[in-house]
Amino acid sequence: MTSAASHPEHHRISPVFLGLVAIMAVSGWAVWYGWADVTGVSVFFFVVAGWIVSLCLHEYAHARSALGAGDVSVGAKGYLTLNPLRYTHALLSIVLPVVFVILGGIGLPGGAVYIERGRITGRWKHSLISASGPATNALFAGVLTAPFWLHGVHDMPVAFRSALAFLALLQVTAALLNLLPVPGLDGYGVIEPWLSPAARRQAEPFAPFGLLIVFGCLWIPQVNEVFWDVVDTILRGMGVSELETYLGLEYFRFWQGEPQNVLLP
Q1: Catalytic positions, please?
Q2: Which residues, in sequence order, are CB contacts of 83 under 8 Å at separation 6+?
Q3: Mean pLDDT by 10 residues, the chain (265 residues)
């Protein structure tokens, strides 16, 4: 008899996720070849589809780590299918992060899959489950920036190169923000197993407001400046310049008009 954890239906990749990958591939092809009359529209779909794909991979990493640690319930919940519609809060997991990208050009972390922590023993396992999501964003950023740090971008079309840079920026911001030790975010989930029961009880009421706390802090000019300095430093280490990420955002916001006659070194 097939167990709930190993049922094929629970591991089959969702057509929704495959559709997102297809949109990302087709729009990326359109950006590369300048297929659309308005390149920025193609960049917009490439970045949004890529961003949602990364959110799916982020949540999948949590679920897969939880399955390996003993929570077999994640399969029946559909978390292993990479279907974003199966997440606990589809609005928080997908819609809200996309809105933040459109409005502010920043990759805020999304919602979460529900892990039955009572099925899992060992503090290290709990910490690794929480850390696996941001680690996935960091890995995705490394893949996206590989052409930059391997010095293979010079023959790329400017729009595609800039779109890659902007999508990589979203991954870096998501990883950094998610690693903050704020209740409700993965960074807190990493350290929570090591806190005393009293400290956990004090932090628990703030968990539903973690995203709002982060967003509010980013409105503080000094905090915002330090945050973006860290992001730019990481991206420069990956070979991505501030100009490339800026152009990516400009192409992405196609409704404001595309940059003209841009030359990159």
Answers
A1: 59
A2: 14, 16, 17, 56
A3: 55 92 96 82 94 92 94 90 79 73 75 84 95 96 96 90 96 94 93 95 88 86 94 96 93 82 65
